Amino acid sequence: MNRSNPRVTTVLLARRRQALKRNLKQAVEGDGKGVHQARVASRRLREAVPVLATGLKKSKADKAGRKIRRITRALGSIRELDVTVSLIDELAQRDTVPRLALEHVRARVIHEQESRRVTMLKRLDRVKVAKLDRRLQSLSEALEAADAEQWRETLAARLLKRSKLLRAALENAGQLYEAERLHQVRIAAKKLRYALELAAETGLREAKDPVLTIKRAQDMLGRLHDLQVLQTYVASVLAEPQSATPPDGGLEIIARLLEDECRRLHARYVSTVPALLSVVELTRSSLVPSVAQPGRRGRRHLKMDLGTLRPRSGRSSAAVNEGR
Predict the structure, then answer these.
(1) Distance between CA 252 and CA 244 in Å, rounded?
(2) For residue 42, how many other CB atoms are within 10 A of its CB?
(3) Torsion of CA 37, 43, 48, 54, to 10 degrees
(4) Which of 41, 137, 206, 287 is 20 to 30 A (C-alpha) from 115?
(5) Quick check: pTM over 0.70?
């Protein structure tokens, strides 16, 4: 079937597929930024594939989704330690941070980082990335040939579910500083953001501001989580026999510094909760109906934006603001 423009579903899948291929290659080569962006690309694909493949028969979308999930997990542990090393480098620039104690923590993190990188490469090798890419190409061809737009209802349902989960996580976290509950807010916000990005790229312009609101909160919670990970390594070094740790109290100083920064970030997070709740309400009341049954105005936007959705060799606008 010949068309002057590719289907929006085809373009959305192609953009995410290309981002994963490009960044995964850099990740395998040892580039820390590539690890991060490949992980984000895998999450965006995981959000898109089951939505776009709605109603398609024999597309093997489920198998592709499982392989993409394995990529996300393979990249996850090494990504966490890459960030931890970056945080240690950041702290090393401060005159008030004891250097000897910080180097003890760095040595512990680097040792585990090297081990996890070996594990990551083994796991990626088992995924058979080339086979996954072929499956995604087949799915793209099926999308181009399909006439149905059942994916809209699936995306609308997904947005509604994601918004409810974020509201529940926000309410459960309340204003208490509790690491696991805040982590659940971060996960719920991330999932809603990826669904909103998908909606925005189909032409729903009203979804763009909510994406930015979530990203700001997500970055804040991501920083908080990263500091908490570093706290666990400081605590593990503190737990070693005294003969193996610096005798000057430097580890305790670092521990207090990290705790103070975590508390400040939590206070900032609490101030963003009303904005996040507004995003939840906007998603439920306005965005979900617009996605499920786009009016004439929404369809005009989709037609106008289709040219900007074409696959590109460079980075997409969405990739400029990568998620955590």
Answers:
(1) 15
(2) 25
(3) 150
(4) 41
(5) yes
Category of 111 on φ-ψ map: left (φ > 0), alpha (ψ -120 to 50) or beta: alpha
Question: Model confidence over 174-229: pLDDT tens digits?
Answer: 999 999 999 999 999 999 999 999 999 988 999 999 999 999 999 999 999 999 99
Cα angle vertex 17, ends 33, 63, to 5°?
Answer: 110
Question: 316 is written with which tokens?
Answer: 């997409």
What is the reported pLDDT for 284? 95
Residue 265, both tokens:
């970030």
Q: Which residue, among 218, 220, 224, has the nearest Cα to 260 in the 3D structure?
A: 224
The predicted-structure confidence for 24-41, as pLDDT tens digits, reads as follows 888 888 888 889 999 999
CB 321 within 8 A of CB 188: no
Six-digit token pair at 277?
């709740």
User: Which residues, other chains included, contact 148 with Cβ-Cβ below 8 Å and sequence gap of 6+?
Assistant: 54, 55
Q: Of all residues in the chain, what percent carry a pLDDT higher than 90?
A: 57
Is 80 exceeded by the pLDDT of residue 58?
A: no
